[in-house]
Amino acid sequence: MTDDHMEEAITEPCVTTRHAIDLPGGRLEYQARAGTLRVGRDDGSPLADVFYLAYRAKSGATRPVTFAFNGGPGSASLWLNVGGFGPRRAPTLTPHATPPAPYAFGDNPHTLLAVSDLVFLDAVGTGFSRLAGDGRPDEVWGVDQDVEVFARAILRYLTMTGSWQAPRYLFGESYGTSRAAALVYRLQNLGADFNGVVMLSTLLNWATTQPGLDQGYINLLPSYAAAAWYHGQARPPASRSPGSSTAPASSRTATTPPRCSRATCCRPRPSKRSPPAWRTSPAWMSRRCAARSYGSRWRTSAGSCWVRKGSG
After folding, report:
1. Which of 52, 150, 168, 185 is packed most tightly, with the most Cβ within 10 A?
2. Is residue 145 part of a domain?
């Protein structure tokens, strides 16, 4: 063993075990390797040690290799591993509550190892991934810094295992999908083409989490309506005549504010001309009282605003 190989063995320790699993397609023998990948700066100085857990099936043919990671940012990859696609899993009773210990643990008949070798990577600061040498948090925590660390770790794994001829895939979950989108672009710029990217629980449009965007509520409306119908809470529209209340008294719920008993509250505002009939209807008066009671702002179908918080 050369001095360079001895140094690599010290800085990139790993442990390998061998296993077998019975899958629908037959018995599959594989090895599990847990270790770290040394990621360095451009000058070669150490920056971080990225932990990985790799599963490689025993096969004479060249198999694809899939690099998988969770999101957060700030989550290790155990959820995709023992919670989803690794050869071993901790089954739950979802959607029912999983009882307390002792917990079950066993082979995963749905593992992706049947079709691809798997490498689960932990972001620096999660799992067993740590800074190395004089590495600083600002060098690894950030959108671009995070992508650079993952890119260098993946390139290092391909070199260390001699897997450059294998078809390559990325598998990201949640924020990991945002990472995967930037990561595959960075890897391609570094000369490492990839055969595909898998995205689970995609999160690419961060605008959907910003205040003022109502699209999320619009998207939820059909689901809420279906759930209400299933539980018998959906009611057919009540027949109404002009001037009648928006809903019969029997269908009012605790969230429907009561009519105000103050005579002055529901009185139309003074005007030089007579208000239109809809402005003096019981339905409009009820809404106007509700707006005063909740200190909110109501708009009519014509778009005019009549009641504001603190208005008289």
Report:
1. 150
2. yes
Q: Does the residue 232 lie in any domain?
A: no
The amino acid that residue 51 corresponds to is: F
Residue 60 vs residue 86, higher pLDDT: 86
Residue type, 28: L
In this predicted structure, which of 41-55, 58-72, 140-154, 175-189 has the lowest mean pLDDT? 58-72
Question: How far is it, in rounded angstroms, from Cα 235 to Cα 246?
Answer: 13
Burial 59-90 (b: 16+ CB within 10 A, else e): eeeebbbbbbbbbebebbbbbbbbbbbbbbbe
**Domains contained in the chain, number:** 2
Q: What is the CA radius of gyration of the chain?
A: 30
The continuous run of DSSP H or E covering 230 comes out as helix 215-230
Q: Which tokens sit at 208? A: 């959907």
Q: Are 34 and 156 found together in one domain?
A: yes
> Are 178 and 117 in the same domain?
yes
Backbone angles phi, psi at 89, to 5 degrees: -145, 160
Average confidence score pLDDT of the chain:
81
* Integer Cα distance of 180 and 69 in angstroms: 9
Please state the pTM of the whole predicted model: 0.68
Whether residue 70 is found in the same domain as residue 189 = yes
Peptide bond into 102 cis (omega under 30): yes
Judgement on whether residues 187 and 109 belong to the same structural domain of the protein: yes
Host domain of residue 279:
258-312
